[in-house]
Design a protein that fits this description.
Organism: Timema tahoe
GO molecular function, one term: calcium ion binding
Membrane topology: Single-pass type I membrane protein
Strand content: 35-45%
Keywords: Calcium, Cell adhesion, Disulfide bond, EGF-like domain, Glycoprotein, Membrane, Repeat, Transmembrane, Transmembrane helix
CATH architecture of the largest domain: Sandwich
CATH topology of the largest domain: Immunoglobulin-like
Low-confidence stretches: 4-33
Structural class: mainly beta
Subcellular location: Cell membrane
Largest sheet: 4 strands, antiparallel
Shape: rod-shaped
Number of strands: 20
């Protein structure tokens, strides 16, 4: 669409040249104008477009129209007179350009302890249409990939938007692919979409621990005997100790698997030292070897704070 500024008409002269139609010609296009874009009829002065126009390449033209009177009979001998008229042509934008996303390479990596006040990432897009019109203004939205509702999008302006976490991501580590849509405000609008990959990584906040319930396996010991027959048959047993630690555990005599026999309470005892005896079934005298084991009990948060007294009386003076 084209708008123009200026007025085109005929120049009046007082002499007999008025009997001859005035001849107009497109004599000059300024340095920013592309030659061959416009043409003018030499007698009617009708200005036409002679080539395709693209506002994204050039949004306006400044044309200079030159008009001659008595052109047919007086131009050659210098009797014709001329005048100039300046016309501005503005190319009105149409919504013919689609938004283009700036690429986000790879995966946006955050941890499961990502701070909610921190931005996960920012998406940006450009539109070659006029940014001062709805055609060049973009709004963003998440259209899929957010079934758990972990993320939200906030438009910052007409060319960018931020993605944030809605709530804590603790324990929700994994890869998420959001489909983000960019839509300009033109009529009809142009719509494009892109994928934003977000990788929530595990944060090392848990130390390994034993699942020490009654009957659970603590460890398996193994001993070998190079003899044959009963002389090489190995059996296991726990040896008694002065502290009575052996009562908390048991050992399978054939497999050497040591099991938990009694509950553990770190607040009462955090280290257990036991001695495992491996013996053969040799005749007449069995032989044996001992192995000392130290078991460390890991603390769990199983006690809540308690006041030392139920009621305290305070007097003020």
């Amino acid at each position: 669409m084209i708008e123009y500024e200026g007025h085109m008409g005929y120049q009046q002269t007082p002499d007999s040249a008025l009997r001859n139609p005035m001849v107009q010609s497109l004599s000059h296009v300024n340095v920013k104008s592309a030659p061959g874009k416009f043409q003018i009829h030499p007698t009617t002065g009708v200005l036409n477009v002679s080539d395709s126009l693209n506002r994204e390449e050039q949004s306006s033209y400044m044309l200079i129209i030159e008009a001659w009177d008595n052109y047919q009979f007086g131009y050659a001998n210098g009797e014709s007179r001329n005048a100039f008229k300046q016309i501005g042509v503005n190319i009105v934008d149409v919504n013919d350009e689609v938004p283009v996303f700036e690429p986000i390479n790879g995966c946006v990596t955050i941890t499961e302890f990502h701070e909610l006040r921190e931005v996960v990432t920012v998406v940006r897009a450009t539109d070659a249409d006029d940014p001062n019109t709805p055609n060049g203004r973009i709004l963003f939205s998440i259209v899929s990939g957010n079934k758990l509702g972990l993320f939200k999008l906030e438009n910052l302006d007409y060319s960018s938007a931020r993605i944030d976490a809605v709530h804590s991501l603790k324990g929700l580590y994994g890869n998420y692919t959001l489909v983000v849509q960019a839509q300009d405000l033109g009529s009809p609008p142009n719509v494009v979409s892109t994928e934003v990959n977000i990788c929530v990584t595990d944060f090392n906040d848990n130390a390994p621990h034993f699942n020490a319930t009654l009957g659970s396996t603590i460890i398996q010991v193994h001993a070998t005997d190079d003899d044959i027959g009963l002389n090489g048959a190995v059996r296991y047993r726990l040896k008694q100790d002065l502290m009575g630690n052996w009562r908390t555990f048991s050992v399978d005599s054939e497999s050497g698997i040591i099991l938990l026999k009694q509950p553990l309470d770190r607040e009462k005892q955090k280290i257990y030292e036991i001695r495992v005896e491996a013996y053969d079934l040799g005749i007449p005298t069995p032989l044996s070897s001992d192995l000392d084991l130290t078991v460390y009990v890991r603390n769990i948060n199983d006690y809540e704070p308690q006041f030392l007294v139920d009621e305290m009386v305070i007097k003020f003076t």
